[in-house]
């Protein structure tokens, strides 16, 4: 796994929260809930983020929280069930992911347990997230997509 270091600016996002076991259900949440919400609010063709609020190795599956986020303008006001937040800027270790939803958990595990320690970078408190470009697409036949895995570092 190749790691690059990037300085990312803070980004205001609107998000919808999924609560439950991580895995295939998150993909369904994006397809069936988040993407239709984005389309209805004119927020397609913008960078999106997936932010795991909990560590699934220490949080019971039914209590895990995941925020599907989309960049919005500074003055954007979200209406329930959406909310807004700011993803903090700073220095991030970034690894590319290409695969389907079933492999992303293992990719995060390898990033944290192997690639990041081998790189010599140290994590700092803050959200880790998947970043999807504004022109994101998923192969409908295979489910394969690409994103960047981002972890805040010193």
Report the oligomer.
Answer: single chain
**What does the main sheet amount to?**
8 strands, antiparallel
Gap between N and C termini, in Å?
A: 20 Å
Class by helix and strand content? alpha+beta
The count of DSSP E runs of length 2 or more, i.e. the number of strands, is 8
Kindly state the percentage of residues in helix.
Answer: 10-25%
- Strand arrangement within the widest β-sheet reads 1-6-8-7-3-4-2-5
Q: How would you state the average pLDDT, rounded?
A: 94
Unreliable residue runs: none
Strand-residue fraction?
Answer: 35-45%
Radius of gyration: 15 Å
Tally of contiguous helical segments: 2
Shape field: globular
Topology pattern, helix = H, strand = E: EEHEEEEHEE
What does this entry show, briefly?
23% of the residues lie in helices and 35% in strands. The protein has 154 residues and is of the alpha+beta class.
């Amino acid at each position: 796994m190749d790691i690059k270091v990037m300085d990312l600016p803070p980004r205001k996002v609107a998000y919808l929260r999924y609560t439950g076991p991580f895995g295939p259900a998150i993909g369904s949440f994006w397809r069936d809930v988040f993407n239709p919400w984005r389309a209805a609010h004119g927020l397609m063709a913008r960078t999106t983020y997936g932010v795991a609020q909990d560590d699934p190795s220490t949080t019971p599956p039914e209590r895990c929280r995941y925020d599907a986020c989309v960049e919005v303008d500074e003055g954007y006001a979200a209406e329930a069930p959406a909310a807004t937040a700011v993803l903090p800027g700073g220095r991030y270790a970034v690894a590319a992911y290409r695969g389907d939803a079933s492999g992303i958990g293992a990719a995060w595990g390898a990033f944290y347990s192997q690639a990041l320690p081998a790189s010599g970078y140290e994590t700092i408190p803050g959200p880790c997230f998947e970043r999807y470009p504004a022109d994101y697409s998923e192969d409908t036949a295979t489910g394969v997509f690409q994103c960047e895995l981002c972890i805040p570092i010193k």
